[in-house]
Structures
1.
Amino acid sequence: MNDKPENRVDKIVAGLLRGRRLKLRGGDAEEKEAITAAARLAGMRQGPQRMHPAFRNRLARELEQAPREGWMTRRAALVAGLGLAAGAAGGYIGRAVETRPVEAAVRPIEPLNGRWIDVAALKDLTEGQGKRVTAGSVGAFVFRRGDGVTAVSSICSHLPCELWWDGRGEHLVCPCHPARFTSQGHSATSYDLPSLNPVHARVTAEGRVEVLGTE
Amino acid sequence: MTAQEQPGGPGEVVELPAAPRATDIALNELELVYAFIYARVGNRADAEDLTQQVALKAIPRLRQGAPASAIRGYLFATARSVLGGFWSTRLGLSEAELREDLALPVPTTPPSDEGVEIVQQILAQLSDNYRRVLELRFLHGYSLKEVAAEMHSTVGAIKVMQLRALRAAARLRPLE
């Protein structure tokens, strides 16, 4: 009986109305719309909330102790949308932001206790076209290069969003912001974004494509 | 520094205002971030955890003397990413479904204090029964039993109505 969606959602609503944390479980995804609406209604009903003084003090202490990189990097500015705003603001923000060069070398993904995972048959891959694969916890796009393959991480190097393959434009595209990458993983926009992490991939004697992933 | 870069002429004393510390500015901006997150997760414990994550991720990267607008932009970009991760982990929401949250604009002023009025405006777009059940539950804090008595119905029927009303409310634009 408790598995009925109306019971699950009511349990979540009752918890929210008592000020409790959202305790969700796998099957709740089917009612994600109702649950997020309940959370928003519960959040809005008391008007905008301010931080509890004890939490604010704790946060202040943690901020004082936090290791400080000292500069807002260009990448950080781009997250904030400031890269685009800088031109419009007459360069004001541009001056406020350090344009530290982005590191050139990006390390390949080498999981501890990595394992080669079969992800596809080589014959099923089209030359130069990306195919999204999963090797345990490693998500990657693999590309056929003749009789070989290359692979890059499927996570954007800027915001941690899942990229998608735009076959027409032949780019990996980030859904979260205007960033594109070549099939080699290099940034294809004017922003100096770090390249995507390479992922180890190989073709077996049987013509199977394997990616170094996790269990 | 070359002579051309001196702020004043010879003998002139230029008083520069002391720049507020980035941490102080950020703490004030984090009040907005907290309100933004609380309005989406609906409870203090999760809102505090997520605000803390935003602060610890973003603050070390903000430079001393950065303008408040830059700090706010970066904090909210981080908040959207952290909220996305929260819902993604809890509900398995895909990136496409998170786009609503990711696309939310950065607030430029503190939110108004009219929570109940805003909820009522949103609920006014629902049918009478749906509006009533959500008003009684969320604004008046009625139990299901009390709502059932008020609406001359059964607890089971009210539970189903509550679920359908929430699904309908999710599709209303101001909730996005």
2.
Amino acid sequence: MNMSLNLKEILREEMQKKTVLINPSVLNESYLPEYLLFRDEEITQITKHLGRFLSGLHPGHLLIHGPPGTGKTHVIKLVAKNYNEFTRENGINSKMIYINCKDKTYYQTVVALLHELDVNFPNRGFGVAEAVDTLTKHLKMENERYIFVFDEIDKLKKTYKDKEDPMNALIYRMSRLDELLDKDAPLLIMISNMSNIVEKIEHATMAKFTPKPIYFREYNTDELYQILLDRADHALDPSSFSKESIRYLAELIQKNERDLRWGFRVLVEAALMAKEKITKELIEEAVKIVDNDILIQVVKSLSNHQLVVLWSISFLEASSILPVTGELYQVYKLICGELGWRPRSMRHVMHYITPKMENIGLITSREKGMGRGRGKTLVFHIEENPHKILKIVEEILSERTHGKFKPNEIPELLQISFQRRR
Amino acid sequence: MNILKKLIANMDINAIAVNVEAKNWVEAVKIAGEILYNLGRVSQEYIEGMIKTTKRLGPYAVIAPGVALPHARPENGALELGMSIVVLRTPIDFDSPNDPVKVVIAFSAPTKSEHLELLKEIGKLLSTTVLQKKLKHAKTPNDVISAFKEAIVNYEVINNADY
């Protein structure tokens, strides 16, 4: 450790640094505001539905969907907070429980629900059947009427043991709890940001689930502006921003097809850089930082073989060679050989690795004819600047391989970079 | 262009073969490798290494239209700096978009840094179509040497020019 560095002093300086952020938590992703602008209709609709449930009816389940950053989670958390306060204040035996399914398996989701219900159940060692059985027994004994909220249901993690899609399995089991309970089952609220979520739910599941769908539309520029302005009013020094710069940020969100979460991150970044005023130039600078952070985060989430494929496509593009299937695989195989890895088959690369990266939005592909009678091939394209991607991937791979990945020292790659085609 | 310039200036006429007949790409690579071996620049193992690297490189072994560049790693038996040039009578296929190949340029360098540097220099020089054409139409070893010398001079003029 470099002893000349006074780490505590650095911490103190950063902590006490004078910024225009007076209440930074307001711009955090986890911040739950007391009110939500432009969502009155949806909030009222959901609350009325739950009010009917409180009256003794079972008004049916809900399926909330809409693009990311449209307030679905915030709305439901706000409603849940008020619902639980209301039932507690009025001595009503009912509770709303929120579970985020992201990166949880079907089993982990049910266990998380059991833990929320204060049921002692081990995190591992048992199967879904035992977990559901425990849940059923608990619900049978309890007189409380529950509302279970499962957020990000499409992000449930599939394990190698899962024969069926975990999302469908969860919805199927939860919506059929009444058959096991011989009484009213909990009301279910499923949340997803997939536009085609209804199509993804199988017929057999839908037959029992039959939810009332509630769609959260995207905010328009003016609404984005009002929301950002409202948050800026609470988070920033009033003299540090103008309405024009906030409107400019709202326009950038719309223009770049981003969402409010991105907008808040940009605002925080710009505020940290601002000495006195958050100008349009600072916002532009902050956009670059945030986008770069997001890109690095996405690239870091890739597996080693995905990284090599991404590097190969970027390398070919940077060398002005069209990254078609065969040429891409050749470079990928070369690097695997250099690193002492067993290359995945061409079929695996083309059917599993590249489609995954296409889904993330890092690359695109198109079919190209190779000439009469020679069939078709796929041409890949990097969405970002290939030189930028090369740099990021090289850093990550070098770290993961303990400095073994040195493309500049591989003569075969150097030769490829000098390729001249007709 | 330091290494290449020196190599061309001291080029042995026996390192160049023109109007050569080869059945396939392996034979063409072997001929270029044998020349280096006979001049004491590489060991027999290096020739095998050249064939393996050409296979590994696949379509990229042919660096420019009609010009293949077989080589192996220094640790595969490169004894000294060397270069051999083979101009084929009948062009052959290397299974590359740059087929058919008329000129095969083999080289060796005993150290990693010299290997990379020489490869870079040859790569840069072959990016001009003038040299590619002159090599393909060379009738004698002297034609090959003068084509290289001319290309090096032109490259240096362009890259050292004060604009």
3.
Amino acid sequence: MHMTHDVALGINLLHANQEGAEHNRAHFDEWGITCCNIMSSPGAGKTALLEKTLEALSTSLQIAVIEGDMTTELDADRLRQYGVPVIAINTGRSCHLDSRMVAGGIHRLQHEYNPSSFDLVLVENVGNLVCPAEFEVGEHAKIALLSITEGEDKPLKYPIMFREADCLLITKTDLAPYLDVDLSQIEANVRQINPTVTIIPVSVKTGVGLDDWYAWVRSMVDRHCQNHHLGSASLVGAVPHNH
Amino acid sequence: MITIRDWWESQPERPKISKVYLIVGQFTCVEPVSLQFAFAAQTCDTFLAGATLEIQETPLIAFCHTCQQEYRPEIGIQYACPTCRSPMDDIRSGRELKIDRIECEEQLLCT
């Protein structure tokens, strides 16, 4: 018979990813960049939203996109037409971006461009309503999209994504007349899980709600910029260093 | 120290690890059954080969500030407070994801 003894470890399983995310955030803070992590199920309209956002904001803000896609550069090619740097990260068979993959994108941003010239980095995550919610990549805000065609129950079934989101865009609202979906029920279900999230119903087809979304992004960038210039305590702990 | 390997490599006697105790909250994106399957596959031919994984699940428990009491949200159905319908605000349990402890076999001392 073997004698055994226990050793207490208390290791957070996500620690390695969180450490990487903090490292990425330190780089963004050092360069005065605001980073948004954009997440949704496949087909909710992340790329379409980014197209509109780049069209509307890239004249007044310096934007770069980090694009996570499983195998192709189709989305990245769509976004390159807007004249902003698009760094494609093929996640291979992985269903989410993790902080190490995004660090690879940041590395390219640093070496191929002048990173301090950017105001905003938009990370388009892999289409998936589950795993991306658990993996921070170094963002300052998490944006979730839910298209109305997905149904009112999705916030209840995939709660972590909606719990983690700072801003939720309910997309494809132009389709509402053709669907038996109750927009107020979607909002109520989200609110049960996350009382503080900003909810913005939008349609990239008709443009409804997009101005509210752009205003939300601008206020994020402004707030972060102010903190950056003031060297706010919330952004300290970010120790810049070279690789 | 962020992995079991880090701990193991820091031990001069490199003990045999027989069990890994995980704590997994019910309000995480981790499915214990899948994790068991992955653990067996991933530890094959490593220092953890032969070790078993013991998963302790912790329930989702929220605290309602209006009612000043804890309650158990029904995942997938209802998250608001069952008494006053306030949204789920503070989560007291259910987000845990950690390696709590490991069990090692004692080294036999040869004289």
4.
Amino acid sequence: MHQPAIHVAAIRKAYGRTVAVDDVSFDVQPGEIFGLIGPNGAGKTTTMECVEGLRTPDSGVISVLGLSPTRDIYALQERIGVQLQEAQLQKRIKVREAVALWASLYRKPADGDRLIEQLGLSDKRNAWFMTLSGGQKQRLFIALALINDPELVFLDELTTGLDPQARRAIWDLVRGIRQRGKTVLLTTHLMEEAERLCDRVAIIDHGRIIDVGTPAELVRRHCPEQTVVLATDDVTAPAHLGAIPEIESVIVEGSLLTVRGRAADLVTQVIGCVAEHRIRVTDFRTEVPTLEDVFLRLTGHTIRD
Amino acid sequence: MLRGLWRLTWLEIKIFVREPLGVIGTVGVPVFAFIAVARLIGPSVRTGSPGVPRFVSVDLPIFTSQLIAASSVLSLVTIVAIYREGGILKRLRATPLRAHTILAAHVLVKLLTTAVTVTLMILAGRRYFPLEADAPIVSFGLGLLFCTVSIISLGFLIASVVPTARFAQPIGTAIIYPMLGISGLFMPLESLPPALRAVAHLLPFTYSVSLLRGIWHGEGWLNHAGDVAMLTLIFAACIAVSTKLFRWE
């Protein structure tokens, strides 16, 4: 088995009496997008900044591309790209100047003009940083994170504060980074972002990792029940559906039936039953549990609390 | 080690020039204030004129240069504080740029603006205070840059620790101007109480005033080797301490 891109073992970081990160361990494999997900203040950024070498954990071991972020930081900086939460640049620096400055800092820089073009900033090349929109600023920060053609890219709360359209555009860019064979470690408090973007996620709350897996795995493991909601005037429907062994409950509210069960093929069974008994259905939808539900189940609170 | 220094310096110069108010405040205001004062009192004042404070009639070049150095320190402190508060320093930290490269770039920008301001003042002031033919302008200019580097290193130290941009200016002012007050410019060091005199001997302004005054009045650098040594020592000490204390965020 090959070496993981990031190996984190039992790190802990406290600020005074507040323990920000407590016994956190995870591995990130080369070529995957790995997400640290959890509410604000859960310890995601502190964990990431320890991995980036910006902070030193009180205890524990971190290895990034086989290097130590504290001892080998200079060697490591050539091989990683970093986008930080709430970072800014000089107000009056131009986009192309920032890219050129960053390019001058690394031994083997990528083509800055091409990056500007790929990130859709060509018509903003000569714009001052302060005049850019939130989405443009984040795209510039992605360009800066990619300027040294890094093997590993860190993205911290990349789309926070962006409108949905800008967010989707950024997601496409991050997928593009993975397609170029790079590894991505990102943090987000948006479960939808994690679900759409991440190959694997670690759920983190109060400084501890609660579980790690692919979004689908986590949903299956923690929220296996499926829900089908259908609308029908057929009064025999609840009885027919209730006769299916895998179905745990059928709740009737007027003409709306909510059917719950744990079988993987619950939807097929419901459709089969409806067809067999010629039940006339006027509406039909499934409710699939999401990472949001997983988070609620695991922590007892929603991610926005 | 200093990778990116020239590009960053050049960039910071351009960024500085893009803010008209900053340029006017840093370069324009001192020059115009100088001209205004010179027009008011200029014609009547000659070296050693009676009834005019000594620091105007004799030490005007030194007084002016120290004020410019002091304002360089203050603006350095403020800029670093703004960069820290805005997360700019933090972003730069995650690159191969080092703290001393960033500070060095800002010092170079400050030295350049100081040089430009002083040059403009000399040109503008010529009408009111004609330079004596043998005034050691070049030597004085070099001396001023040397002193400014040492004084700015004190700014490094303050800039490394001031918590927020809002406090940077008042804290800097509260520290810098009293130093100027006991630098020997306004009253001889000997007339200071012993405690203040001891403090004065630790401050760069004291040696800066002594060195520049010496150069202006035609004494050689060698006669002021002690001042040069102390300014170098203060510079080294401030840099060493501020590198340890430097806060990125």
